[in-house]
Specification:
The complex is a heterodimer. By secondary structure, chain A is of the alpha+beta class. Chain A contains 6 helices and 9 strands. Chain A is globular and about 55 Å long. The interface between A and B is medium-sized, with 19 and 24 residues.
Chain lengths: ~250, ~500
């Protein structure tokens, strides 16, 4: 135990050596909006939704080691405006049609949109053409909703040891691919019990034929906003993240 | 007489009057009239001018998503699409019979919708015409005017609709666009608290529905000659019917009767509806023209909706509504049951039936049951049919082995009534407009005829539009001669 603290929006937050700002904040019951950060996986720092202003500098709090005396600004108009813009860009980049999406009510992106007060699209939609992969008998991949968080990539490699998913392409053409000669999910060894099936924050990786089984009112974000839900999940840490046996020696 | 008004022989010599958009209906449509130099109407058409194409973009989507996706066709009676698509998807997952809890919960949702949609149509959209007169002052001819002149009528209309919406919220999860009906059943039952919540208000709802039927009858009686003849025409009929001949708005076999009362087919399994119903396309409207295959496109068009259901069923299985049905059929020697404005009266009888059915269902403990879902053997094709507030609604899908929709065909109530609505406006054009100098009040007569069918033009073409009234009078060269009303 140490007595080290940093200031988050003017209030002291204690931290353990090696903790990032978001880990310390969540452990202390303080919510910082985030999307690609997951307490069971090593920080990734790609979506930037957890951006804070630390000692005057904008930086992703999931990759920022906590330091004693640091002054962190999170719940301010300036930072929230930036986060809102990031979320709007994610909505514009894919095909996120919440009204008919079975992930509605359980979707982290949608919940963040509500939490950050996204009232309009903000940007012209790209409307990309992304066919679904329905080849697997039990699992549907709807690429329209992918936000490139790589949680499925990390889960499949680090926990499942299968590396079923990967990102391909660069910049605007970056997209999720399936690790099979045919490119089809049916030709992988993915299984319903895989960790990769659990972690998708949006509606890309779906168990078939069970959409809308949960009534409105009982979905994850129906009773509580995402800020409260995230704190409920917070005590877990990234220490237990495993290593992908399938990837060993390939990097 | 009026069929010739569909297409004038020399349109280039005629001046064109457009009622665009038609107001106080759901969706976006227009009526065009071609008029000669002596103000005689030579052509009258109802056009549906927008297109959305749900049948195309549901292709490639997983089948379990469809009941939620397609209800976005409409904000007034989305439950109809939710349930018709669910019934089709029941077949896709190999289910022919739901659990009692699932079927009764869906029925309760449906009757909630019938109640709210019929209340909306009668009170909010049509009562201004009926209470003030078809050609009355336009500034007053709206629901705000009704609230000022007839506060009790307006209040009951609002509260009836509110109750129907509340039934939908409790059963579907949301007042508009809920998600509870899923392939093979439902995702929720009713808690005893929810049931008691709905039960506490149902008796005044039934009482107000009875008053609404009485009001519709009174309006008809007060202006009998006009109500009997306004836009009147004879037509074949189509509706779903229960096995014992009772009105059943959720499920049944197809009953089709010709103008002269002969049965064309009865208790026909709707799974093969295409053996009887075909669609024709005309170049001037995005809405198709369905017809009975047995009679051909010229003579085979028909009428659906409240007027048809109330007049063609053998009985209504709730006491107050059936009493009203008998009165309606006996009224003036049966004349009201064939009148275009008889739709309003029949609609209120159905609203009363829906209120009675809600009461009956709320006293059924099956609604509190836990057995919600059934599964079966996957099938390739599913057809779902339901009697939506405006009439018979058909959803038809084919799903591939990967669970994706590859084909969809939707024939909505307003589409069935396409030719009938055109027929009604041609009658009215002949009866009231022919040889007259056109005024806003006279042109509203055309809209009154369209409104009697409670058309949902959004659903019919899967389109959505704003509904202010704008009338333009154009000369033969297309020059604007006059404009009435306001557009935003």
């Amino acid at each position: 135990m140490t007595d080290a603290t940093f200031l988050l929006d003017g209030e002291e937050v204690p931290f353990q050596p090696g903790q990032t700002v978001i880990q310390a904040a969540l452990s202390a019951g303080r919510y910082i909006p985030h999307l690609c950060y997951h307490p069971e996986f090593k920080p990734h720092g790609s979506c930037k939704v957890c951006t804070v202003k630390a000692d005057g500098r904008l930086v992703a709090s999931c990759t920022l080691p906590a330091q004693a005396g640091m002054a962190v600004e999170s719940d301010s108009d300036e930072v929230n405006d930036l986060r809102r813009t990031l979320v709007q860009m994610l909505f514009a980049e894919g095909n996120h049609f919440c009204p008919s999406c079975e992930k509605s009510g359980n979707c982290t992106l949608q919940a963040l949109g509500y939490d950050l007060g996204v009232m309009t699209a903000g940007f012209r939609h790209f409307f990309p053409d992304r066919p679904v992969d329905a080849s697997h008998p039990d699992i549907l991949l709807d690429f329209n909703r992918c936000i490139l968080c790589e949680l499925c990539v990390r889960a499949s490699c680090e926990v499942d040891g299968k590396c079923v998913f990967a990102l391909s392409g660069r910049g605007l053409t970056k997209h999720l691919v399936v690790n099979a000669e045919s490119g089809l999910l049916a030709d992988t060894d993915v299984a319903l019990t895989d960790k990769a099936m659990e972690v998708c924050p949006v509606g890309v990786i779906l168990k078939k034929r069970v959409g809308f089984a949960q009534p409105i009112g009982q979905r994850r974000y129906d009773p509580q906003p995402i800020s409260a839900q995230a704190l409920r999940d917070a005590p877990r840490t990234a220490d237990g993240a495993g290593k992908c046996t399938a990837c060993e020696g390939k990097e | 007489m009026t069929l010739q008004l569909e297409t004038a022989p020399h349109p280039e010599t005629l001046r064109r009057v457009a009622i665009e958009p038609i107001s106080r209906v759901e969706g976006h449509g227009k009526v065009t009239l071609l008029i000669d130099e002596d103000n005689h109407v030579r052509q009258a058409r109802l056009h549906i001018v927008e297109f959305r194409g749900f049948e195309k973009f549901v292709q490639g989507r997983p089948f379990w998503e469809i009941p939620v996706m397609v209800q976005r066709l409409c904000g007034i009676c989305p439950v109809s699409h939710h349930l018709a698509a669910s019934k089709a998807m029941d077949q896709i997952v190999g289910v022919d019979h739901l659990t009692p809890t699932a079927e009764k919960l869906r029925r309760l949702m449906h009757y909630g919708q019938i109640l709210q949609s019929h209340a909306l149509h009668f009170f909010h959209l049509s009562s201004p015409d009926l209470l003030f007169g078809f050609g009355s002052e336009v500034a007053r001819r709206n629901i705000v005017g009704v609230a000022a002149a007839h506060p009790d009528v307006a209040k009951q209309g609002v509260l009836l609709r509110k109750y129907g919406q509340e039934v939908i919220r409790v059963t579907a999860g949301k007042r508009v666009h809920g998600t509870s009906s899923v392939p093979g059943g439902v995702n929720k039952n009713l808690s005893s608290e929810e049931r008691d919540h709905l039960l506490k208000d149902i008796y005044p709802i039934i009482a107000w529905s009875r008053e609404a039927v009485a009001l519709a009858r009174r309006l008809f009686e007060q202006d009998l000659e006009r109500y009997n003849s306004f836009g009147r025409f004879d037509a074949h009929s189509l509706c779903l019917i229960r096995a014992d001949g009772a009105m059943d708005l959720y499920h049944g076999g197809l009953r089709a009767r010709t103008v002269d009362g002969k049965t064309l087919f009865d208790h026909e399994n709707y799974d093969h509806y295409w053996e009887h119903i075909h669609e024709e396309v005309k170049s001037w409207s995005y809405m198709k023209f369905p017809f009975f295959r047995e009679l051909g496109p010229e003579a085979g068009w028909y009428r659906v909706g409240p007027l048809t259901r109330v007049s063609q069923c053998d009985f209504i299985p709730t006491p107050f509504a059936d009493h009203e049905r008998r009165d309606f059929l006996a009224f003036d020697g049966g004349n009201a049951a064939g009148a275009t404005l008889g739709y309003h009266w029949a609609r209120m009888i159905e609203m009363l039936h829906a209120a009675e059915m809600i009461k009956e269902l709320l006293h059924d403990d099956d609604l509190l049951g836990q057995d919600l879902l059934v599964t079966g053997e996957r099938r390739e094709r599913g057809v779902g049919m339901i009697e939506a507030p405006r009439g018979t609604l058909i959803h038809h899908y084919r799903v591939d082995e990967n669970d994706l929709v590859v084909r969809a065909n939707l024939i909505v109530s307003t589409t069935h009534n396409n030719q009938a609505m055109n027929e009604a406006i041609r009658r009215v054009a002949s009866q009231y407009l022919d040889g007259q100098t056109l005024t806003e009040g006279l042109l509203n007569h055309i809209e009154v005829a369209v409104r009697a069918f409670d058309p949902c033009l959004s659903c019919a073409t899967h389109a959505l539009g704003k509904m202010p009234l704008e009338l333009e009078l154009l000369g033969p060269d297309g020059a604007l001669l006059d404009r009435l009303g306001t557009a935003p």
